[in-house]
Amino acid sequence: MNIQNYLNDRVENQVHYYESKSALNKQYYLFFKIAQLTAATLLPFFSVFLSDYSWMKYVIAFLGSVVTILEGVMATGKYYEKWVIYRSTAETLRQEKYLFLMQAGSYSGQDAVQQFVNKIEFSLGKENVGWQQLIVKDNKSGNNQPGNERNINEQTDKPAPAETSINTPAETTPSAPLDPITGVQNDAEALKDT
Known about the structure:
The protein is mostly helical.
């Protein structure tokens, strides 16, 4: 396979895949979050009419249930986390592609093609490892149950900044743990120990 085929069949295909998955998860997240906020906002509004209409207690109970169900759906679907991870991966792949095409950064030497392929495949593998760690962590800690999504959301309230370079497996320090959301080494954890 030549480099042009690799760019078209592998890199562009993966960028398109991650972009479409990111957009889909963004839509799901925004839909469920707006629905949840709307139901939560209507609760105090309808509670004002509770003394005037006896049936209003059913509406309030229904809205409370809707808020809880929507929170459970978002925690189970992990739409926000997927949105951030897929977008980050797509942007990383696109950045590496443009660096390679412009022969910039680490792609100015003789082995540019080999480095490019290694970084792209490592980035794709790192994304898969990040998901595996997130799933294992959720199963062990019980974060996949509705109401326990606080720990995941605290880790991902802000999207991770885009990396300027990707560490190859040889550059990775085994003592620094991988972040379960981004799949990137968490150097802050390693620094805390020193």
